[in-house]
Specification:
Elements: H1 7-13, H2 21-24, E1 31-36, E2 39-43, H3 45-50, H4 73-80, E3 90-95, E4 101-110, E5 118-125, H5 127-148, E6 153-158, E7 161-165, H6 167-172, H7 193-200, H8 202-207, E8 212-217, E9 223-233, E10 241-248, H9 250-279, H10 284-297, E11 302-306, E12 311-314, H11 316-322, H12 340-354, E13 360-369, E14 372-384, E15 390-399, H13 401-415, H14 425-442, E16 446-453, H15 456-463, H16 465-482, E17 488-493, E18 496-502, H17 506-521, E19 525-530, E20 533-537, E21 541-547, H18 555-571, E22 577-579
Parallel strand pairs: 21-22
Antiparallel strand pairs: 1-2, 1-5, 3-4, 4-5, 6-7, 6-10, 8-9, 9-10, 11-12, 11-15, 13-14, 14-15, 16-18, 16-21, 17-18, 19-20
Helix pairs in contact: 9-10, 15-16, 16-17
Length: about 575
């Protein structure tokens, strides 16, 4: 009697295939392909679509190795001829019939029961997962940098406890080290009744959504006014994860309250005092003194003019801003006192305010000295005389220079690769795409280069990722030195860079690529601690070159051809330039 096989024995032998197994696997969403001696005999519909074929017949009879990208073709051939057996799935790049590539997880199953050198290939498209993983790593690094440099307190919380606090937060809460707060209940940073509310109902904080005023407490128990915002984050389990941002507004509240009071009541008070001056001369001195005291108390520059744009008065903050005396600008217009650009924009705002359009706001650049200019926000409103007709315009100004500087810095961080200082992938694609449009409109040459450090994994494995980062930065520096200012350089990810050479034909691009290759090969990176002590790291690059074709409507097809040429250079031995 023959003993039946156990499940473990069947798993060790692998799957068994019957003659109709392809029909059964037609329902699979993954690629399933039957090969003999490495040649495709049959493929399911999902696999044909995955490889860009309208009919499975387009793939039957082709060598499967021809559908594999990069350096994988030789290895795949050995596996398909059953010279080697790989029991588990492995990542690989597959080719569309149109020449594009995508990432897949491949597994090869011997199928000798169907014939000698028969194998079944299964593949699952993992391009989306790969992009998500790369994007997540990049976003995490950038987020960490931005958070640590933030001017405000930032907490990352898990459930009701603090998991992370940035350096600014440690200082704002009166601590000396982040460890004083990590693990602390979130409610402990709140003061008074706010602490009780958060401790009793954390969901109320998370449901608030927008910015809200609260009182927070430092470690020594001192309370202060703050604005906070709680943002829920994607959570892995039932326990909520969220970010809390906060800034100390104790001093700001006083200034904002005074300004709001002025904005809400100034027009009515000025008109009321003007009426009193006309109706009751005995109260003129008292009314004038009151108005002047009120305006002088406003911390922002404030002024008022007549309907012809001549200054009638201004407060101390305005005088200090422009370095003028109490009567220097009285009776003068903006055309004679401020820079022309600001005068033009401000004059248009006066017209709109006098036309009854309510409060008028604009941003402009104000030159307050020969070598000093400020970015400002100006609010203007009309003031009326005894007959309720417009008598002039009142203006108040807020200096936003620092805010604009921070906005510019955030824009720079959003377009620049943190490690190398080159354009990041998204901004490179925008800039290079614009160059393609310009080259098409004016029928000018344009060439794309793709660069990749040869055996980069070996550098990381031997010397560690910090040395790998130094190598990537050194490659970026060499590229910046060799190419021109008008060319576009970007880091696409890892050790891979792309360059768009403007106003350059193929011959010129090959000269640039060769100079790059030689310059990189000449680099020497000193390493204080290698596997055997101090060492010097050298490396090379492979470069793919593709010129713009008439049919190219965007940068993507050029980069695709350059990328294929790059892999051709690697297959040819690396440290060389190939044309796609």
């Amino acid at each position: 009697m023959v003993r039946p096989e156990t499940p473990a024995e069947r798993r060790r032998k692998g799957p068994r295939f019957g003659g109709n197994f392809m029909t059964v696997l037609e329902v699979s969403r993954d690629l399933v392909c039957l090969c003999a001696d490495g040649v495709v005999l049959d493929v399911n519909s999902a696999g044909a679509a995955m490889l860009g074929a309208e009919q499975a017949d387009q793939l039957v009879g082709r060598a499967f190795r021809d559908l594999v990208g990069g350096d994988y073709a030789g290895v795949i051939d050995d596996l398909l001829h059953l010279k080697e057996i790989e029991g588990s799935a492995f990542p690989i790049k597959l080719l569309h019939l149109d020449g594009g590539t995508f990432e897949a997880e491949l597994q090869i199953h011997p199928a000798r029961e169907l014939g000698p050198a028969h194998a079944v290939v299964t593949a699952r498209d993992i391009s989306h997962q790969g992009r998500l993983a790369r994007t997540a790593r990049y976003s995490e690094d950038r987020f960490q940098t931005l958070v640590e440099r933030s001017m405000h307190l930032v907490l990352l919380c898990h459930g009701g406890r603090i998991g992370y606090i940035n350096g600014t937060g440690v200082r704002v809460l009166g601590g000396s080290d982040a460890s004083q707060f990590v693990g602390m209940p979130v409610s402990e940073i709140f003061a008074g009744e706010y602490r009780e509310i958060v401790a009793a109902d954390l969901a109320a904080l998370l449901d608030e959504g927008g910015i809200m005023p609260v009182r927070l407490a430092r470690l020594d128990g001192a309370a202060f006014d703050a604005q906070i915002k709680a943002t829920p984050l994607p959570s892995r389990g039932a326990t909520p994860e969220y970010m809390v941002e906060a800034r100390d507004i104790t001093a700001h509240i006083r200034a904002v309250a005074a300004l709001r009071h002025m904005n809400d009541t100034l027009e009515q008070k000025v008109v009321a005092r003007t009426h009193e001056l006309a109706e009751e001369r005995s109260r003129a001195v008292e009314a004038h003194a009151f108005v002047e005291s009120l305006l002088e108390a406003v911390p922002n520059p404030l002024w008022w003019k007549d309907t012809d744009g001549r200054y009638l008065g201004y407060n101390g903050a305005f005088r200090e801003l422009h370095g003028i005396g109490a009567g220097d600008w009285i009776g003068r217009t903006m055309d004679a006192t401020v820079n022309s650009t600001f005068a033009t924009v401000s004059g248009q705002a006066d017209i709109e305010a006098l036309a009854g359009r309510g409060r008028v706001q604009f941003e402009a650049r104000l030159e307050v000295a020969a070598d000093q200019a400020l970015d400002v926000v100006v609010n203007k409103t009309v003031w009326r005389g005894r007959d309720e007709r417009p008598a002039g315009v009142i203006g108040v100004m807020l200096d936003i220079t620092e805010r604009k500087r921070m906005e510019a810095e955030l824009r720079r961080l959003a377009t620049t690769d943190v490690l190398t200082g080159t354009f990041n992938r998204r901004h490179f694609m925008e800039m290079a795409g614009a160059e393609v449009d310009r080259a098409r409109r004016h029928a000018r040459p344009l060439v794309a280069l793709m660069l990749d450090i040869d055996h980069f994994k070996r550098i990381n494995d031997t010397y560690g990722h910090p040395v790998g980062d130094v190598a990537i930065k050194a490659l970026a520096d060499v590229c910046a030195q060799v190419i021109r200012h008008e060319d576009v350089l970007g880091r696409l990810g890892g050790e891979e860079f792309a360059i768009a050479l403007t106003e350059t034909d193929l011959d010129g691009a090959l000269l640039v690529a060769e100079r790059l290759r030689q310059a990189v090969a000449a680099l020497r990176i000193a390493v204080e601690q290698g596997p055997d002590g101090p060492d010097v790291v050298t490396f090379t690059v492979s470069i793919g070159v593709a010129e713009r074709l008439e049919a190219d409507m965007a940068i993507d097809p050029m980069l695709s051809r350059a990328d294929m040429a790059l892999y051709a250079a690697k297959r040819s031995g690396r440290n060389r330039v190939a044309v796609g």
